[in-house]
Structure formats: C-alpha cells, structure tokens
Design goal:
globular; 14-stranded antiparallel β-barrel; mainly beta; disordered N terminus; 4% helix; two-stranded antiparallel ribbon; 1 helix; 306 residues
C-alpha cells in the first residue's frame, strides 16, 4: 500500500500545473469534497453542504463563490458517490461547473482507510464584456461576449484514520484554451488550468473535552509561487470549533464552527488581508452550512473527526 501511495503522489507531481484560477476556500478541511473527489462518502454517512464566499468585500469586481455539494457512502461503505456545483464570479467573468464524483475505499486496518476518487463533468466559461467600464465602448475587441462550455475530469486520493487525514488531488485535470477572433484579430485564452493540491491534518487530544487540529494545504500552479495555508483549530466538547489561519502571510483569518443539534454544522470565516496584498480595508467572509447524517444501516453513527 505504501508503494501505491508513493506512485500516485509522484504521478500527480509529474503532471503540469498552470496559472492560478481555482476558487479559494478557507473551510476546506471541514469539507474536503470541494478539493478532492476521494472524500465522497469517506465518513460513511450522507452529507450535504453549501458555502458562500465573498472575497475582498467592497473591492469592485472582487471574487464571489457559491458552492453546493452532496455525497453519500454506499455498498456497505465500500464506495462513495457525490455531486458538486460551483459558481465563481470575478469581475465580468463567471465560471459555472457541475461535477459528479465517485470513490472507492480500501480498508487498510481497523483504523485506516485509503480512498481513490474521480470526478467528471463540465465547466461553463462566460465573459460579459458589457460590464466593463471602457473609455471607448465602440472598440470592436470588446463587443463580443464569450460563452464556452468544456468537459472536465478530476482525480484524488486520501488516506484517513481517526487521528489524521492526508490527501492529494487535481480536481480539474483537463487544461483548456480557446481561440477567440474579433476585429480580424485572433487571441488565445486559457479558461482554466490544472492545480495540484496536497493537504494534511492531525488531531491532538489535549484532554477529554479539548482537541487541537492543525492542518496545512499546499497549492501548486506553474508560473505562480507555491501557496501554503496553515490552520490551527481547537475543538471543544465535539460541538464548537474555533481557530486561526494564514495564507502565505498575505491573509490572516479566524474561523468558528458550531454543531446545531446532532446533524447540522454552521461555520463562519473572517479574513483580513495584510499590507502585502490588496489592503486591510477589503475583508473576506465565508459562510458554511452542512448536514451529516446516517441514512443506511451500514452508516457510521459515531462522531467522525474528519
């Protein structure tokens, strides 16, 4: 099994990566499905969640992301299936994608599970140039809007236990470019490019009521510096979570999450850019609402740390 994991990791690392275009998330460790299809059904339950993220609020044309995903464990917890829908708006550009995910889980021992997943779907790229504030509104290069749909494939792998989880994924595997002609001029545009994600988290039991869960996310894209997210969260009585994080020291943030009853989870993230980015006056807000519940006899009724 170790040889399989190493072979997959080197395979992922050998694939090309390109410019940063994927939407950002801060609560990915509470909902890894947004980055890795291998998480589909991994906690042996039915899951559904919605995430709304407004980045750099007050900044004209700043990114706005809406994410919905649902997944469930099937066939005596041997496989998982899921659905992912994303709407990501940045200025005049809007990307909409729908992906179906499938995972297969291999128990290594009583505590550890290895999961390999794939996803497939489409991404629709739209650029509404009429929203741009142009000095010359008759410029022929900006009179034609784009509306292009392309297929997508994604892959991922996760190793999980009650104490740790590590994963590697490329959720958008097919790098796609198009050629647009306007005013007798042809230009090539890159709609989206491959991103490599590697994440890991570990749970430290400080006592019966308090747990520390540090986590790290590496995001690699060719032509851009390696991006590193560091998170430190404390969980109290398995009901309330609070912590801090940073992304490349360009963003500092805090996040909280509370369990509402036995099934619902509500989370909120506040991010403050440092002086190295857009400026501290443009804050970021992310809201997460999720449900986790057993629906079949073979589903897990205990509380999962991941």
């Amino acid at each position: 099994m170790k040889r399989i994991l190493l072979a997959m990791l080197f395979c992922f690392l050998g694939m090309s990566a390109f410019a940063q275009q994927d939407p950002l998330y801060s609560q990915y460790i509470n909902n890894p499905m947004v980055l890795n299809p291998a998480y589909a059904g991994l906690n042996d339950n039915f899951n559904a969640s919605v995430t709304y993220r407004k980045q750099w609020a007050g900044f004209d044309g700043s990114p706005t992301t809406f994410n919905f995903n649902t997944h469930v464990s099937l066939v005596d917890n041997k496989v998982g299936v899921g659905l992912l829908a994303i709407s990501d708006q940045l200025g005049s550009t809007k990307n909409t994608e729908v992906q179906a995910a499938f995972s297969y889980k291999l128990p290594i021992d009583e505590d550890k599970t290895f999961s390999f997943g794939m996803q497939a779907g489409f991404i629709n790229f739209r650029n509404n140039l009429t929203k741009l504030n142009l000095e010359d509104k008759t410029d022929a290069a900006f009179l034609q809007n784009e509306n292009i749909t392309k297929p997508n494939l994604g892959v991922g792998a996760i190793l999980k236990s009650d104490r740790f989880m590590v994963g590697v994924s490329i959720p958008r595997l097919l790098s796609t470019s198009v050629s647009v002609s306007s005013a007798n001029v042809s230009q090539d545009f890159q709609l989206y490019n491959r991103h490599l994600y590697v994440f890991g988290s570990y749970v430290y039991f400080i006592n019966e009521n308090i747990r520390l869960k540090p986590s790290v996310l590496l995001r690699a894209v060719k032509g851009s510096p390696l991006s590193v997210d560091l998170n430190f969260n404390f969980n109290f009585n398995e009901k309330f979570t609070a912590g801090v994080f940073t992304r490349n020291l360009n963003t500092l943030g805090t996040q909280v999450q509370a369990k509402l009853g036995d099934k619902l989870k509500l989370g909120y993230t506040f991010e403050l850019p440092t002086g190295r980015s857009v400026g501290t006056q443009f804050t970021t807000h992310e809201v997460f609402l999720g449900i986790t519940m057993p629906t079949f006899d073979f589903h897990d009724r205990s509380i999962s740390t991941f």
